[in-house]
Specification:
8 helices; elongated; 4-stranded antiparallel sheet; alpha+beta
């Protein structure tokens, strides 16, 4: 007899053994907590802000706006250029390749402002702060030599006390996923139990097995 999933039966089992679902959910949370804290490498992020302020041209404000956008885009590229990264690696004696270092750097622009936000992630918060501040200072010097811009300066260097909280992994999300996995495991177990249960519990089960209609039934009575 081909068995199909009886949702009502599964729901009844879940209601009866709700504590199993709860235990497996809590167990999943515990496993996720232990795994995240002891086996997943934590990453910290340090942030620096650099002000890019080109000289104004009072004769043409539209030109100033366009020039500002171009400069912001240019400096976003310069931050992760080989020239800048080589200087950072040499100054800090880093063993990372340029590709590895660039993968830990993120550069963005605060809306339409003239501020570049540079973020660096590292497994060591002190190293993240050191790298992003060095990167910002080198960018400031490169603006003078490469772009002949003197109005680029570090607006807000990274500080260690602001980089002590890991940005990944996300412990709350991981624990939630652990709970969901535990509950899903409990449901899967009960589905297997339902599918492998060969007891004939209803008239439909009997008719599907013998392919003849049931004429009557005898109720079970407790003595």
């Amino acid at each position: 007899m081909d068995r199909t999933i009886d949702l009502s039966g599964i729901i009844a089992i879940l209601k009866r053994f709700w504590w199993v679902v709860a235990v497996l959910g809590i167990a999943g949370m515990a496993v996720a907590f232990v795994y995240t804290n002891h086996f997943v490498e934590k990453k910290y992020e340090a942030t620096s802000q650099v002000l890019v302020k080109p000289e104004k041209n009072e004769d043409n404000r539209n030109f100033d706006v366009q020039l500002n956008k171009q400069l912001i885009s240019t400096y976003q590229v310069i931050v992760t250029s080989g020239n800048v990264l080589n200087q950072v690696r040499d100054e800090l004696s880093l063993e990372d390749s340029n590709k590895e270092l660039a993968s830990r750097i993120a550069v963005s622009n605060e809306g339409s402002s003239q501020v570049l936000v540079i973020r660096v992630q590292d497994t060591d918060p002190e190293q993240a702060v050191l790298v992003v501040n060095t990167l910002s200072e080198i960018l400031q010097e490169e603006a003078k030599t490469m772009m002949d811009e003197k109005n680029v300066r570090v607006l807000s260097p990274a500080e260690l006390e602001n980089s002590q909280t890991p940005v990944s992994p996300n412990l709350k999300v991981t624990i939630l996923l652990g709970f969901i996995a535990g509950v899903a495991l409990a449901v899967a177990i009960f589905v297997v139990i339902e599918l492998t249960n060969t007891k004939l519990r209803t008239r439909e089960d009997v008719e599907a097995l013998v392919d003849i209609p049931v004429l009557g039934s005898v109720n079970r009575r407790k003595l």
